[in-house]
Design goal:
Strand content: under 5%
Distance between the termini: 35 Å
Number of domains: 1
Shape: globular
Structural class: mainly alpha
Number of strands: 2
Largest sheet: 2 strands, antiparallel
């Protein structure tokens, strides 16, 4: 049954997709495309190889730093595409979601599509409640600067990544990307994909750059994953409200910030929770429609990640422009 709730101003506002969008609009927004999905996967891997190729052609500290700064967003891009495949929305063809989502998106970042999808769908069902399985990643925010600094230090020194590796080797649950252990078979697949990536780089004469790929994964990627999780649900207006305008946020960040840490429209997280079947490449369209219907009239605006993190660390519960 459809529900209306009072939102901020005290007025009763529609909250369901079928109350704000026509059947035709919903159908168009949920339309997936095999071509677009393949392009996003190819584009992400293309940027990975461009960055590693740059390091191979011009080896040295500067190019290593460039890789450590820009590669995490591409690794996150693969994880985001795994997420899309887990929702069945990256491709129109289910088999492509299963195969490409697993072998080209999940396994390269030490994830597992089936188990990730199961855990993530549980997050969607229970977001806004104390049973949300992802609460451990953001319930403590806002936090003090020193506490956050310690987390950043653990990420950048590889401690967080090492804990993830130990968990995977023991067959347990992955940490930052929540891959649930599937025993030795999953570990074998993850190692196999890393080996295939090394062989591809070796064939290009860049074999040593796999170490840069792995070092990035173990350090700056862990930090980017953490920052993304905080931006999505940390220190939101009301983490325990079922309304996505209260329990999550969208960050209207400039392009350079999105390139660094919010690839494939992952910054539109509020819209994703409002209508999870919409592919990432149509979330901006959904936001425009919702804005035109007044859905965000009383919702705080988050104009960039710097503003969000400043708020999270200083204890503010919302961000306004």
């Amino acid at each position: 049954m459809s529900m209306n709730v009072a939102h901020k101003s005290g007025s009763v506002a529609p909250t369901k997709p079928n109350e704000l969008l026509s059947a035709e609009e919903r159908l168009a927004l949920m339309q997936s495309s095999d071509l677009v999905g393949l392009w996003l996967v190819a584009q992400t891997w293309g940027l990975v190889f461009i960055l590693l190729g740059l390091a191979a052609l011009f080896p040295g500290p500067l190019t290593a730093i460039i890789v450590l700064v820009f590669l995490p967003g591409r690794q996150l891009g693969l994880a985001v595409l795994m997420h899309e495949a887990g929702h069945g929305s990256l491709f129109a063809t289910p088999a492509l979601n299963r195969v490409v989502g697993q072998w080209f998106c999940a396994l390269p970042t030490l994830g597992d599509l089936p188990s990730y999808a199961a855990g993530h769908l549980e997050h969607h069902r229970k977001a806004g409640t104390r049973d949300d399985p992802d609460l451990v990643n953001y319930a403590a925010y806002p936090i003090k600067n020193k506490s956050f600094g310690r987390k950043v230090f653990r990420d950048l020194t590889g401690q967080t990544g090492f804990k993830l590796l130990i968990s995977l080797v023991r067959g347990g649950a992955g940490n930052m990307n929540r891959a649930q252990g599937q025993g030795r078979a999953l570990l074998f697949k993850q190692i196999l994909v890393q080996g295939l990536l090394f062989l591809a780089l070796f064939a290009l004469g860049w074999g040593w750059t796999w170490l840069l790929w792995f070092a990035t994964f173990m350090t700056t990627y862990m930090l980017v994953i953490r920052l993304r999780q905080i931006a999505e649900h940390g220190a939101v207006p009301n983490l325990y409200d079922l309304d996505p305008r209260e329990n999550t946020r969208t960050v209207e960040a400039p392009y350079w910030q999105r390139f660094l840490m919010a690839p494939h429209s992952v910054n539109f997280h509020l819209e994703h929770h409002f209508m999870a079947a919409v592919p990432c490449y149509r979330l901006a369209d959904l936001r425009r429609l919702l804005r035109a219907r007044g859905y965000f009239d009383h919702t705080p605006v988050s104009p960039g990640y710097g503003t969000v993190f400043k708020s999270v660390l200083q204890g503010s519960s919302s961000v306004s422009s």
